Amino acid sequence: MRRIFCLALALLLFIPSPAVSAGHNTNGDDTITGGVIFGGAKISANASGAVEVPFSELPGIAEDFTATWCDNCVYVEHALHNVSVDTGTEVLYYHRNNDVEDPFGSDSGDSWWQRRYGPGIPPTVVFNGDELRSGSLPGDESLDDEFTAKVVRNFDIGNGDSQFIWALENNNTTGAFAWSLQYNSTHSTFADSAGVQSWLVVLEDSAYFPEGGNGLEDYPNVVIDVIDLGTESEGLYNLTLPSAWDDDDITLMLIHELIPLPPGTDSETAQPGDSSDESGFLPSITLMATLSVVAIAAFSRR
Q: Which of 42, 92, 159, 296 makes the best surface tag, with the fewest CB within 10 Å?
């Protein structure tokens, strides 16, 4: 098994990046027209490795739109930190782009937020991609309790796995990312959607910026890039790692987005029948066949 895994890592470096498809649009107000977000499997980009997470063990995902000058954002971020510690929730921080007082924004992060949630106004938090909460004032309960209730709300996606291999080249700046999403397309959650779109989120674990007006100084899980991997259930992507703000702490996270059906669409004809309930690391015939072809070609050139 170890030999097969090492061979797979080596083979990935020969495979070109796939074409990716565009996502769907949001309506520009506080109504979320994008589907549920799930996933959250992640790995440090500093070394090659593999990750497989069954659906039953996937963390909740909270996305926070913030800024280094935003005082009110501090209360929200403290609450999100507590919720993350208590529940294992993965928190992604999207910073305002093209902001002279905040150096952490990115074009792809801004595009992701505006497409799904409309114009970003810090602080705004979205839980599992389908519930938006603006502002920092608590309601009838503390922010910690409110955020916990929102992020742990269960949605049924049946049985399956979110899994990937990351193969870092010797230059430590480029590598290949291979992913596979195993799910049951006949399950009601997937059958009532137009498909699943996968995304690679590139994060910096912690960025030190003492010039920030809100006094936090250390800003965690900063979204550096959001890469569209397309709507196939598996694929490969060649990645050049972005530069970190400081240190060497880039993390790669795989997330999946349910694509809503267009109004009036029949769910029985909209969902392509390309999925499986079977577990196991990258088991699909298509991907394994691709690796086999590449192996033959690689060894024939020796």
A: 296
